[in-house]
């Protein structure tokens, strides 16, 4: 190697290091992109039945645990693990997601049905044990969502066919969270006409 090559080598190494360090990517400041991913899921409490007794069950959900999420989760019914442990549900299957509105210690749940037979079956089922499941789930979620809620939580359920016409196509029932505080409360699971 010649003397000129040896002298040029350090200069070439410095030039190569300089070019490789920039890589043509401009510098940027901090990029805000929302909350960091945690991989954790929220947990809410839903009520199913075990031997005709209202039973609180923790349910993991993929979204923020609010009253609407809890109501949707209880309507989705027990999963395979729940059924293996003897949990059941008396709630009807819904053709569309319920609409849930909250204000203080009041929860209003609106259920819409596409056909009159779906509506009639839901109206028949939403008594006794099914109403207890829904009331206790909504009340527990409301208290968790808003710690300022004290005392009983009132839950009103409205079912309607299509547009919510009046008369035979609209039905209301109410429940109160005081039924949820009695441990081992056996509920009538037989459907009664509404």
Describe this structure in words.
This protein is an alpha+beta fold and 194 residues long. The protein has one domain. Helices cover 31% and strands 25% of the residues. The protein has a 4-stranded mixed β-sheet with strand order 4-5-6-7. A 3-stranded antiparallel β-sheet has the order 2-1-3. Strand 1 (42-50) and strand 2 (53-61) form a beta hairpin. Helix 2 (67-75) runs antiparallel to helix 5. The model is unreliable at 188-194 (pLDDT under 50). Residues 1-22 form the signal peptide. It comes from Streptomyces fuscichromogenes. This is Lipoprotein. Keywords: Signal.
Number of domains: 1
Helical fraction equals 25-40%
Please list the strands of the largest sheet in the order they lie side by side: 4-5-6-7
Measured by DSSP, the beta-strand proportion falls in 15-25%
Separate helix tally: 5
The biggest sheet amounts to: 4 strands, mixed
């Amino acid at each position: 190697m010649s003397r000129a090559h040896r002298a040029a080598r350090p200069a070439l190494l410095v030039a190569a290091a300089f070019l490789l360090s920039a890589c043509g990517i401009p510098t940027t400041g901090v990029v805000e992109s929302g909350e960091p991913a945690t991989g954790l899921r929220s947990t809410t409490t839903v009520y199913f039945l075990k031997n005709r007794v209202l039973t609180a069950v923790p349910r993991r959900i993929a979204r923020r645990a609010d009253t609407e999420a809890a109501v949707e989760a209880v309507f989705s019914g027990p999963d395979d693990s729940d059924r293996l442990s003897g949990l059941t549900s008396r709630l009807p299957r819904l053709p569309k997601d319920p609409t849930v509105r909250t204000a203080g210690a009041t929860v209003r749940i609106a259920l819409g049905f596409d056909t009159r037979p779906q509506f009639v079956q839901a109206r028949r089922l939403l008594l006794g044990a099914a109403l207890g499941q829904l009331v206790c789930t909504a009340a527990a979620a409301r208290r968790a969502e808003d710690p300022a809620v004290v005392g009983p939580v009132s839950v009103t359920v409205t079912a309607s066919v299509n547009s919510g016409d009046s008369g035979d196509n609209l039905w209301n029932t109410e429940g109160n969270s005081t039924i949820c505080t009695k441990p081992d409360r056996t509920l009538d699971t037989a459907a009664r006409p509404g």
